[in-house]
Specification:
179 residues; alpha+beta; four-stranded mixed beta sheet; 7 helices; 4 strands; globular
């Protein structure tokens, strides 16, 4: 593990603190602090990239914190920060499709499978969605059940509901959404 480390930084959002991790290539992890997934995701990234984690910051983390702040202020609907998300081609395809779900809209796993031309892979699409390490920016929270119900979300269903409400503008006042 002689490569540049993966830099980790914690910052505050209206829905709780988030942990952002990035290499010199881009953001590789963004999760809400307290998620049981963070430790496993960091171990996976350390193994995949053959790098250790250190606390600090870099330009990708600074850009992430700025863009997430703008998102919660209602001033940003798409993200520009570079991503470094190592995975197989199938997961990369699913994550790219997630990024194409318009702000304020939702979809379901079957529709996502259709979008990538793999109707036979609904369960694999669901698994790839669940393996997403970059919350909000790769908007897995926009995937709901086919019946309109909320389905699992690594940050918790309450946060998922609040993110969807924020994007739909159902409650315009920040105090209503994040108070």
């Amino acid at each position: 593990m002689n490569a540049e480390p993966i830099v980790s930084h914690r910052f505050h959002t209206p829905l709780g603190d988030m942990l952002a991790c990035a290499t010199e290539q881009g953001l590789c992890l963004l999760e809400f602090v307290g998620s049981r997934r963070i430790e496993r995701e960091q171990q996976d990234l350390s193994h995949l990239l053959q790098r250790r984690f250190v606390f600090g910051t870099n330009r990708h983390i600074e850009q992430t914190e700025t863009e997430i702040g703008e998102y919660f202020q209602g001033a940003r609907q798409r993200f520009d920060v570079a991503l470094h998300m190592p995975a197989d081609a199938f997961r990369q395809t699913v994550w790219a499709a997630l990024r194409e779900i318009p702000y304020g809209e939702t979809t379901h796993y079957q529709a996502l499978a259709e979008r990538i031309g793999r109707l036979d892979a609904v369960r694999a699409v669901a698994a790839a969605n669940g393996a997403n390490r970059v919350s909000i920016i790769v908007p897995c929270h926009r995937v709901i059940g086919k019946d309109g119900s909320l389905t699992g979300y690594g940050g918790g269903l309450q946060r998922k509901q609040r993110l969807l409400e924020h994007e739909r503008g159902q409650n315009r006042r920040e105090a209503d959404l994040f108070g």
